[in-house]
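TICKET: design request
STATUS: open
ATTACHED STRUCTURE:
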């Protein structure tokens, strides 16, 4: 199934009259690899936002849409635990393990807490 990133890339290719192979060549990957990324079988590689933005001269609005598409398409997220204590690590991992089991209300509560704390730090 085509991800948000895949839809963004497809539109970009149509707008530039390109085939998947042309974009893959520009990115230095095979067509099958690009297709796997677009279909969510692989994560969007680091550096592709900047590379695609440069290759296609994306304006600020288009870059934001690309960033959002990449964010929505990520299936795996790596976390940096370097400066976290054991309790913080346990909390983060417990949330990740149990997230699917939470009901909508609990998820909204957690999201509100996190967004409130994020705004305080900005």
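STATUS: resolved
RESOLUTION: sequence designed for all positions
ATTACHED SEQUENCE:
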């Amino acid at each position: 199934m085509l991800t948000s990133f895949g839809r963004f890339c497809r539109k970009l290719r149509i707008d530039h009259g390109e085939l998947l192979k042309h974009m893959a060549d520009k990115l230095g990957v095979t067509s099958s690899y690009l297709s796997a990324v677009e279909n969510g079988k692989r994560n969007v590689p680091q550096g592709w936002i900047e590379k695609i933005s440069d290759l296609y001269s994306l304006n600020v609005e288009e870059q934001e849409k690309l960033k959002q598409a990449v964010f929505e398409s990520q299936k795996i997220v790596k976390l940096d635990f370097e400066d976290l204590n054991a309790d913080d690590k346990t909390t983060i991992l417990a949330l990740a393990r149990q997230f699917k089991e939470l009901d909508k209300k609990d998820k909204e509560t957690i999201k509100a807490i996190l967004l409130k704390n994020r705004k305080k730090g900005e």
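CLOSING REMARK: Residues 86-121 form one domain. Residues 104-121 form the longest helix (18 residues).
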